[in-house]
Amino acid sequence: YMSQSIEKHRLDGLKVSQPAIRALESIGITYLEDLVNYSEKDLLKLHGFRKKGMDILKSYLSENGLALKP
Fold this sequence. Notes:
Elements: H1 18-26, H2 40-44, H3 51-63
C-alpha cells in the first residue's frame, strides 16, 4: 500500500506581475492546481490580470501538465 500525495505548486514560480499574483490570490488561488477550476475568460475579468500574464500562465500550466477550464 502506497499513499499517493499530490504535490501542489505554489504560484511563486509563476513569472507574472505582482498585480496579477494579487488578482489570483484575491479569488483564493494560491496553488497552480487551483487554476483548473477557472477559464481564461474568468481570469481576464480580474483587475490586474492581463493578456501577457495569461500567456505566461497558460504556458506554465502546460509545462506542469495542467490546463484552464475550457
